[in-house]
Amino acid sequence: GPAHLFRLAGKCFSFVESTYKYEFCPFHNVTQHEQTFRWNAYSGILGIWHEWEIDNNTFVGMWMREGDSCETKSRQTKVHLVCGKSNKLAYVSEPSTCVYSLTFETPLVCHPHSLLVYPTLTEALQRKWDEAEQLLYDELITDQGYKKILKEIFEEAGLLKATEENEVEKPSKKITLEFETVEKCSKEYKQLSEEIKKLGVLLSQHGIAYKGNSAGNLSVEYVSHQPAAA
Questions:
Q1: Where is the DMAP1-binding domain (predicted)?
Q2: Tens-digit pLDDT profile for residues 48-71
Q3: Domain 3-116 maps to which CATH number in 3.30.70.100, 3.30.70.240, 2.40.10.170, 2.70.130.10?
Q4: What is the per-residue pLDDT across 102-118, written as a single tens digit (0 to 9) for each?
């Protein structure tokens, strides 16, 4: 992420609300401690430093994931970085069960360019992003294809982590009707057309009547019951 934020590493900031004390340690974890005299007072981890949330070339939040178990999932926390006069944990909420939201104020993000993603990338990844922008401008890739390239760039830069679900899906990739580029669409169409022509010839050889539409698709009308030649 932004190099100037690394000076927060190794430090921790606390916030007390009601009987709970929250502690945020940038690039490390978020913890919660129940400050009561109950024998089973909760004290645990709400998330471990995982990845950035990126939107519109901007680091919009830090995700702390894989915290203590909570029913069927793990606790996780999103930390919002906002401009402030000093470094402090300013607000904590739980918008949904076991998902927490922290607001951290710091003067390190007050400059309008302080949370831009592009300047933090290597020259090679910046060139890759520039090329993707040009392809999108020339309409050679779709918006979906552009976003996919950006995700790959952010993962390669270590800003995002590839999810296990995506890694599992790779071997058994499902067929989709969407194409990232016009060239891929045209190539697939040409290959399918050639295959359909070959199928048409085979059907004729084996006495199976068919008709094709303008796209080259086949529709079988009847099947001959005569044995086909080997």
A1: 117-220
A2: 999 999 999 999 999 999 999 988
A3: 2.70.130.10
A4: 999 999 999 989 999 99
